[in-house]
Amino acid sequence: MATQLALVRGDITRMHVDAIVNAANSSLLGGGGVDGAIHRTGGPAILEECVKIRNIQGGCATGEAVITTGGKLPARYVIHTVGPVWQGGDKGERDLLSNCYRNTLTLALEHGITTIAFPNISTGIYRYPKEEAAAVAIETVRKFIAAHPDRIATISFVCFDEENYGLYKKQLSYAI
Ligand code: ADP
């Protein structure tokens, strides 16, 4: 079965999937934006596992990903990945953002995850230009699917804001 790409407008904490992805920061101790929403809705079990990971490996580097329980979320797992802070585009931001999507999907395969939902990593507090971030996300995910055919059933892009939703709709050529 071919992997489906889906576009969703809304709150990622409500997604009934195997794993949702968190746009975390390198401390793994929670923050604002989608990170805050995930910890608020998922409850303390997520932070407890983040603290354990921190104690072992000292946080999470930009572009890398770690996995925890989903706690009280409908999703079984949360994969926390740390997007790059936009610094003008000549600090390797594009590759780092691409690494987030690829490393998250690699971790998902290792855990037998077949349905996964991504937020628009780095496009909030980290100020990555939204149109470029959408292009990196879609290109990286498409390449991953081509390299790992039939392993993942559905990959959803969950857009919280109208602007991102419009950009993804255009770039995914959705006729809605
Ligand atoms: P970053 O620090 O990586 O920029 P943010 O959480 O500030 O992370 O923003 C990343 C994206 O997540 C933004 O596009 C923001 O609109 C979106 N976002 C915020 N809350 C939610 C939510 N509950 N569900 C899905 N996306 C969200």
SSE order and pairing:
Elements: E1 4-9, E2 19-24, H1 33-42, H2 44-57, E3 65-69, E4 77-82, H3 93-110, E5 115-118, H4 130-147, E6 154-159, H5 162-171
Parallel strand pairs: 1-6, 2-4, 2-5, 5-6
Antiparallel strand pairs: 3-4
Helix pairs in contact: 3-4, 4-5
The structure holds adenosine-5'-diphosphate.
What does this protein structure show overall?
- The structure is a single chain.
- The protein has 176 residues and is an alpha/beta fold.
- It has a single domain, classed as Leucine Aminopeptidase, subunit E, domain 1, CATH 3.40.220.10.
- The protein is 40% helix and 19% strand.
- The protein has five helices and six strands.
- The protein has helices at residues 33-42, 44-57, 93-110, 130-147, 162-171, and strands at residues 4-9, 19-24, 65-69, 77-82, 115-118, 154-159.
- The chain has a six-stranded mixed β-sheet with strand order 1-6-5-2-4-3, with helices on both faces.
- Strand 5, helix 4 (130-147) and strand 6 (154-159) form a beta-alpha-beta unit.
- The two termini are 23 Å apart.
- Bound molecules: adenosine-5'-diphosphate.
